[in-house]
Amino acid sequence: MSNDSLSETLHQLKHTYTNLLLEGIRQQGVDLSVTNIRTLKGVCYNPQSTALSISKHMQRDKAQITRALNDLLAAELILKTDNPLDGRSQLLQLTPKGEAVMTKLNAAEKWTKEQLTQDLSPVDIALFFRVSRTMIDNVSTNKTTDK
């Protein structure tokens, strides 16, 4: 396979990142599935989150997110409170135990970033972000094309 293949390079980068991140998570002693981790992060980084808002943000079926939320509730990583704006939904927030897990996840992500970028300059990293963001924006569902 050609070293200039965009698809192969992106595929390898994705798997390298995922494997490194999972290794970092294991090193931190976090024993959660990828879906549960992403859901926990959704609760952490989206104030006033609900099961529906997390489902939409993650582009996952609400039933799948509900199962993950139930796992996180059982592990006492999150809690639900009544939503004062919508009596049919509940707001989600981290517990102190959930915050401690997020600290470990952030450490794993930092370690992963350090491993991937150790031989890159700040300019290289900034260029990577700019090019990656442009590629993502090129196919964003919010972008309209006149073709």
TrEMBL record:
The keyword Transmembrane helix does not apply. Gene3D superfamilies: Winged helix-like DNA-binding domain superfamily/Winged helix DNA-binding domain. Keywords: DNA-binding, Transcription, Transcription regulation. This is MarR family transcriptional regulator. GO terms for molecular function: DNA binding; DNA-binding transcription factor activity. Residues 3-137 form the HTH marR-type domain. The keyword Ribonucleoprotein does not apply. The lineage of its organism: Bacteria, Pseudomonadati, Pseudomonadota, Gammaproteobacteria, Moraxellales. It comes from Psychrobacter fozii.
